[in-house]
Amino acid sequence: MPEDRDWEAYKVPPTRTPVSERTTSVPNPVNFFQSAFSYVIDAPVTFVREWIERQQAKNKFYYYHQKFRRVPDLSECMEGDYLCYYEAEAQWRRDRMVDQEIVEIVRERLGACKQREGPNQFQNCAKEMQLLAQVTKAYQDRYGDLGFHGNARTCLMKQKHRMMEERKAAQ
Fold this sequence. Notes:
mainly alpha
């Protein structure tokens, strides 16, 4: 049977149910509640919202992401300066999250390269593999063995101990 029917050839019979237009002297309560809601609740809220949007349109503010100023490292804080300790800790946590995202992005790029190249992945994705190895080694050197509850002080101590071991190995 064809999809496109010729409606002139196959006319649909008219409906037998007459359309009634009921007009009564009693008003419909639904219409009353709809108009009351519109005037009492919807109109003031819409007016306030449109006013706020007009005010915001005057003062365009383009917000991309929050930029924090760089604060001194924990090693640069004076003794007993707890505000500096707190800011250095917050800065260290942000840096750690950025480094985690860098490792994840490089890992995703390597996975995409492996998916794209298929059997030739070892020779065509060597640059990405080398970059992932460098990034993960740098991340492991800085944040490895700190655990979930690592903080800026333990990370600084870890770096200090690593530098001391490197000096001893150099001698």
